[in-house]
Amino acid sequence: MRRTLSRLVLLLAALAALVAGPAAAQSLNVEIVGGLKTAIPIAVVPFAQAGGAPLPTDVADVIRADFNRSGKFRSLDKNDIVETPSQGSDVKFATWRLLKQDYLTIGRISDAGGGMLKVEYELWDVNRQQSLLAQSFTAPAGDLRGVAHQIADQIYEKITGVRGAFWTRIAYITAVGVGNNTTYSLIVADSDGYNPQVVARSRESLLGPAWSPDGSKIAYVSFESGNSQVYVQNISTGSRSLIASHPRGINSAPAWSPDGSKLAVSLSYVGNPEIFVIDVASRTETRLTNNFAIDTEPTFTPDGQSIIFTSDRSGKPQLYQMSASGGAAQRLTFQGGFNASASVSYDGKQIAMVQGNGNVYRIAIMDRSLGGQVRFVSPGNVDDSPSFAPNASMLLYAASQGTRGVLYAVSADGLVRQRLVLSDGDVREPSWGPYRQR
């Protein structure tokens, strides 16, 4: 219960002086922890470059890192690559079979004119000696990381049948400084932590970033009126809209409906935290819960028909589900003394949550297609704020490392974790964004 209540206490206590505006942000340091020997072996050969100055991004390195953190693939170490073909006619399949590689990715980069580069790649099935993909992208040198992520997505989808989610973005909160000199920032970055940009900045805590379904906006909580307020920020234009600002009590925990027209929130101006749905265009509020418990952290199911939320109406925080129009709520979680902070997979079959037993708080995934079977994907001791990738193959969560807050991106089986650490300060409250438009 302490994680949910700590947010409520923080919201009630915080006063803010917000300073917002786009700016460069401190980068996250990235480290992959663990690995899976049974993952699919794939080699990604360094892409050949047809003349010109050295490029700012090694496309093959980015693809390799994407595969390694997915939990589905095991990329051949760059130092073990003994041949560097750049097109199919150059491939000696016997070499890659000896290296025990199932798949091979090769490519080349050339000048496309007008300041643009042409990036071509091929995916080969080593055992069948069969071409599976052969595609190209045209982009400026500064966009090569994005191109690499898109290539990794296409290969991931071709082999697994599931759309890749490497070319997506994440949002998170950073805290840099000590005491009254702490600065909090809402950051948007690539899914691997690169290219961070500041969306909002405050001298007091920012909370609960939530992506709109089209990825153009982020809802979050700030405090510039002396009380918590829910804002929606347009990432491209920098404009923002005030959504909930009741002067009494808290305004917190925004979550978008699948069609982007509504926000579910927790508001306490009625006496205690209750779940409301707000129409973003008209600001019309509809109250969904009415009891003496703390009801918070709502999230819509993918079909938009239901809302899953955290409530302590049974004595301790557990997850409940009700119709998106209100009505009776059904308790979903019974294992563990504490279950909160739900994130629902794209198909509605899996619910990631914080599960607490004693003083240990870990990220658990409940599989509704397997009768509510629960598996843990984090070690604890104080893990929080799970957020599924749009394909549910990975999820983000926050953790404590000594006295500092860090993020982890973990494969859905929990076997591969990527640690994202701020070189100076804490990072917390992660939210994984939706697919980008292809």
UniProtKB/TrEMBL annotation:
Keyword annotations from UniProtKB, A to Z: Cell cycle, Cell division, Periplasm, Signal
Compartments it resides in: Periplasm
Residues in TolB N-terminal domain copies: 28-132
Pfam families: PD40, TolB_N
Keyword Cell division carried by entry: yes
Superkingdom of the organism of origin: Bacteria
SUPFAM superfamilies membership: TolB, N-terminal domain, Tricorn protease N-terminal domain
Signal peptide extent: 1-25
Protein family per UniProt: Belongs to the TolB family.
Function: Part of the Tol-Pal system, which plays a role in outer membrane invagination during cell division and is important for maintaining outer membrane integrity.
Binding partners and assembly: The Tol-Pal system is composed of five core proteins: the inner membrane proteins TolA, TolQ and TolR, the periplasmic protein TolB and the outer membrane protein Pal. They form a network linking the inner and outer membranes and the peptidoglycan layer.
UniProt protein name: Tol-Pal system protein TolB
Organism phylogeny: Bacteria, Pseudomonadati, Pseudomonadota, Gammaproteobacteria, Lysobacterales
Gene name linked to the record: tolB
